[in-house]
Design brief:
This protein is of the alpha/beta class and 369 residues long. The chain is built from 17 helices and five strands. It folds into two domains: 177 residues; 164 residues, Restriction Endonuclease (3-Layer(aba) Sandwich), CATH 3.40.91. It is elongated.
Length: 369
């Protein structure tokens, strides 16, 4: 009696033996099982080196395509596995596939034309692959992938090699757009880590300081320079100093995310008032010592102040209105925001990058309008 091997064992054997037709047939079996375990096995096979055989790229890509059977969840899982593997061939294959989905050119993906059963069943010419659900997911996963892999390389080879070899120029442009996001350090994983920090309790101020130092795009998405703990004279040391792309400066004073911004009576809390006073002291120093300040921070003049404390989501309607009034009274000089304000701004920037940053025609169309 012949023993029937489990799908897990079949996948293990397929990593070292079997033809393209047999691999495709195995992926179809995973379709039939159609659960998370089957998806995990499909992703595992897509990451395989297939014993280093000459045609391993063909094997890897028809299996990577197979993850589309599980919908956008499939490419999310595929991206996560690629980031974890951090190996040239998976990075190259998956960024290539994602760029074709995000640019609505999946039928131009070379391996989409392969006449294997698992590829045929996907119906890759379907309009569903051009919907926002698919394209936006692909863009987000592509940004995370480009951001997270080959971090020791200035230009991740596994990704940049695709630009010169992609047949479809729109897919190549999407690779390039994701590389721009890498330059600014944007990623959904980084924002999730910041969200976890903001919504935890009992964290010391130094933990926020260290996180923002490592992820300065959250303080200012398109900054020119950011200094952590810069010295203003001998005694004044703000938490951050931001130099924007337009050469304006912002002094930032942070507290903790679980401190209250306002009292129940709608007044600034003692912690907020103290942080506000500190930020204004830093501003006054820069104004009163302009010659010294401009030598150290070129072009600094009447810097803007930003106080980051607490969470705005915890304010009631009255407190929200009072905070708005407070910020209007110091408009152009100082603004008080919650840590969740920083988080939401960074999320919006990433969302806009996903929605509009991949299309170079966007600016041209705005000019025409």
């Amino acid at each position: 009696m012949t023993e029937t091997l489990s799908l897990e064992k079949q996948v293990g054997l397929a990593e070292t033996q079997g033809s393209l037709e047999e691999i495709s047939a195995l992926v179809v079996k995973l379709y039939e099982k159609n659960d998370d375990d089957a998806l995990d096995l499909c992703v595992k096979l897509a990451m395989s080196d297939f014993g280093g055989i000459t045609m391993k790229m063909d094997f890897q890509n028809i299996v990577a395509l197979g993850t589309l059977h599980w919908g956008p969840k499939g490419i999310i899982r595929l991206g996560e596995a690629t980031i974890k593997a951090n190996s040239y061939r998976p990075i190259n294959n998956v960024s290539n596939l994602l760029s074709h989905i995000s640019s609505k050119t999946l039928t131009d993906f070379m391996f989409s034309k392969f006449n294997f059963q698992n590829v045929i069943q996907l119906d890759l010419s379907s309009e569903k692959y051009k919907t926002d659900e698919w394209t936006k997911t692909a863009k987000k996963v592509l940004i995370d992938l480009v951001q997270s892999v080959e971090t020791e390389e200035k230009f991740p080879i596994g990704i940049t090699n695709n630009i010169g070899f992609l047949i479809n120029e729109n897919a190549a442009e999407h690779i390039f757009a994701a590389l721009i996001a890498r330059w600014f350090n944007f990623s959904s994983t980084g924002l999730q880590a910041f969200s976890d920090l903001v919504h935890s309790s009992g964290k010391a101020e130094i933990e926020y300081q260290n996180f923002l130092t490592a992820n300065p795009y959250i303080l200012e998405p398109f900054h020119a320079q950011i200094w952590s703990k810069p010295k203003f004279g001998e005694e004044l040391i703000p938490d951050f100093l931001i130099r924007s792309m337009d050469n304006n400066y912002t002094v930032v004073e942070i507290e903790q995310a679980d401190f209250a911004i306002m009292t129940k009576a709608g007044e600034l809390s003692a912690k907020t008032t103290h942080a506000k006073r500190q930020a204004l002291d830093f501003r006054d120093w820069a104004i009163n010592n302009s010659l010294y300040a401009t030598k150290k921070y070129s072009g600094i003049y009447r810097p803007y102040c930003l106080v980051v404390i607490g969470k705005e989501s915890e304010l009631n309607e009255m407190q929200v209105q009072r905070l708005k009034q407070e910020n209007e009274s110091t408009q152009g000089i100082l603004k008080i925001v919650g840590f969740d304000w920083l988080l939401n701004r960074a999320k919006s920037t990433l969302d806009n990058m996903v929605n509009f940053g991949f299309e170079r025609q966007t600016f041209q169309e705005a000019v025409k309008e």
